[in-house]
């Protein structure tokens, strides 16, 4: 029997869209057929159900019953086989169907026969869920979800969610888009999701992580060579994974000096927003920049120096004093607390005129989105770090449209601006202009608080200053930032986490 492994840190590094997994299914079925096996996908369906049932037994070893929901597609087919296995194992099975099961696929029909032979008694779900046990299996909708869930399906999902039992979702929670991680209408809230053949990209961003519960992956013993026939849509990264890929920074040479680790210039901090630059400065320092300068409003100079006397902080009150300072910098980080005043515009103008590697954040992005500011960064190493609100302004759409397809939004921004783009939020995405995408599975909702983005800006600037390319720095920086937040939250909890709490953990992880 297949033993799928669980824990999100052990998921494979390749993520796929629904269409790509369908392609993999077809390739795998063809191979099984060529090897003298069945021709319709029933073999794969059996492997999927076996893997999910193994997970069920491992997670709920004491449970004597299971309630199974089956939709009219192959996800329902998986559910039929799982129900048959449960019967053979001596579990009581309550089995509900939704949709028209007279037109099942060849594989799902065989699955249904198998279930009937095992003694499963399917009943059409009529709105009432009668089940006393602890485990519900959701086989309603999988990668074939193609419209918003409503009607009987929505009632079934509401009944599953209202029931006290835990839900094991087959492939993905019904109602979740495998491609975008958005809930289409409504979705099952799972405790455990066993996903098959390839990890669907939508499980790990937007709403995905909230409704999947724990994610386990079952390869269904598909020949790894088949995966070489198509490239993954997105790479999954995490702090642990970068370590396994040996992508940490090298230890420093003994005979090194501060000039080798780059000079960062942090630009921003209009009236009332000095903290933003202070945090970017400190994060850049804790991530190893050789020297940090800061150009800001007069009133912020002393407070920043008190907190971080290591930094060289200059007042640029007229805005014009910035130009010569920029000439001494290896990397510019612009945007934290920049504001949108004429002072802010004057500073940004000079930053955009320079050719130094740049991290552009916050109001730097908001100004860039306004008429007449649009730039093409193909000649300059640039990382842009929008949260969904800033991304919406840059794309000229609303936030809901950005979140409705984060993968596409990130890709589009990277292509439009010819820069590496970090689209922040749960499952932060990193997009390169050439179409590469990475998704970071670290991070937690404790990070949803003011200042976290400013810290990321400092982290990224320090990494560029130490010689990483924008793509490397963004991947590494997002993981170290989220990894630090996870360590901090593990100590004291997520609620109440502050951006400055990350500093000691950044320092630790960078070494
Ligand atoms: N292929 C393989 O070999 C393997 C596949 N595997 C399994 O198959 C799953 C994919 O199966 P699938 O392609 O049949 O799609 P599935 O998710 O069952 O749904 C399609 C049905 O749902 C319906 N429907 C859609 N949206 C709806 C809505 N909002 N509300 C109501 N109905 C809606 C849609 O109706 P239609 O719109 O076409 O009329 C259609 O009838 C995959 O996730 C994995 O679990 C594994 O066994 C491994 C081997
Ligand atoms: N729910 C969440 N899960 C994971 N990471 C999050 C979550 N909410 C916020 N973050 C991270 O925290 C940071 C917040 O940045 P941002 O919104 O720019 O904050 P600010 O502008 O206040 O500095 C980003 O790196 C983002 O990815
Ligand atoms: K499902």
General description of the model:
It is a single chain. By secondary structure, the protein is an alpha/beta fold. The protein is 40% helix and 16% strand. The protein has two domains: 8-232, 3-Layer(aba) Sandwich (Rossmann fold), CATH 3.40.50; 259-509, UDP-N-acetylmuramoyl-L-alanine:D-glutamate ligase (3-Layer(aba) Sandwich), CATH 3.40.1190.20. The chain contains 18 helices and 19 strands. The strands form two sheets. A twelve-stranded mixed beta sheet has the order 8-1-10-19-18-17-16-15-14-11-12-13, sandwiched between helices. Strands 4-3-2-5-6-7-9 form a seven-stranded parallel beta sheet, with helices on both faces. It starts with 13 loop residues before the first strand and ends with a helix. The structure holds ligand NPW, adenosine-5'-diphosphate and potassium ion.
Radius of gyration: 26 Å
Oligomer: single chain
- CATH level-1 class of the largest domain: Alpha Beta
Number of helices: 18
Q: What are the segments in which pLDDT stays under 50 over at least 5 consecutive residues? A: 1-8
> What is the name of the CATH topology of the largest domain?
UDP-N-acetylmuramoyl-L-alanine:D-glutamate ligase
Average of per-residue pLDDT values: 95
Please list the strands of the largest sheet in the order they lie side by side: 8-1-10-19-18-17-16-15-14-11-12-13
Structural shape? elongated
Summed up, the domain count is 2
The CATH homologous superfamily of the largest domain corresponds to: Ribokinase
Any idea what the CATH architecture of the largest domain is? 3-Layer(aba) Sandwich
- The number of strands is 19
The percent of residues in helical segments reads 25-40%
Hetero groups in this structure are: ligand NPW, adenosine-5'-diphosphate, potassium ion
Family: Belongs to the NnrD/CARKD family.
Organism: Bacterioplanoides pacificum
Subunit structure: Homotetramer.
EC number: 4.2.1.136, 5.1.99.6
